[in-house]
Amino acid sequence: MDEAGARRRNHWVNHIARHAHAKPGAAYLRFEGRTVTWAQIHERVAVIAAALRERGVRAGDRVAIMMTNRPEFLETMFAANALGAIVARSISGSPIAGEDHHRQRTCRRP
């Protein structure tokens, strides 16, 4: 799938963009005493998507995300979605997290 096709299908990112436009200052998420607005999540997703794109992530690629449950996980997941990439999640601190980390470092794109 090309990036134009990915943009048509990335409903999460489209949802964020609509809310960022309609109510930018409204709370999107509250986490550990911090409030993230729709405008902030929209901007963070764009920044992370650009960084992933610079590193060669394209539509159809698999992206492994290894982190704890926190807003940054969602930002990264949505950024990968914006590019049409497929997210594989690993919760750090889980019993197999070390194994997943090893797999991420040793597996390369064909």
Describe this protein's structure.
- By secondary structure, the chain is α+β, with helices and mostly antiparallel strands.
- Helix 4 (71-83) links the parallel strand 3 (62-67) and strand 4 (86-91).
- The two termini are 17 Å apart.
- Helix 2 (11-22) crosses helix 3 and helix 3 packs across helix 4.
- It has one domain (3-106): Rossmann fold.
- Mean pLDDT is 81; it is low at 95-110.
- Helices cover 54% and strands 19% of the residues.
- The protein has five helices and four strands; from the N terminus they run ααββαβαβα.
- Strands 1-2 form a two-stranded antiparallel sheet. The chain has a two-stranded parallel sheet with strand order 3-4.
- The protein has helices spanning 3-9, 11-22, 38-54, 71-83, 97-106, and strands at 27-31, 34-37, 62-67, 86-91.
* Largest sheet descriptor: 2 strands, antiparallel
**DSSP helix count?**
5
The pLDDT mean sits at 81
Helical content band: 40-55%
- The N- and C-terminal alpha carbons lie at a distance of 17 Å
- Low-pLDDT parts are 95-110
Strand content: 15-25%
Oligomeric state of the chains in view: single chain
Question: Which fold does the CATH topology refer to?
Answer: Rossmann fold
List how many beta strands DSSP finds: 4
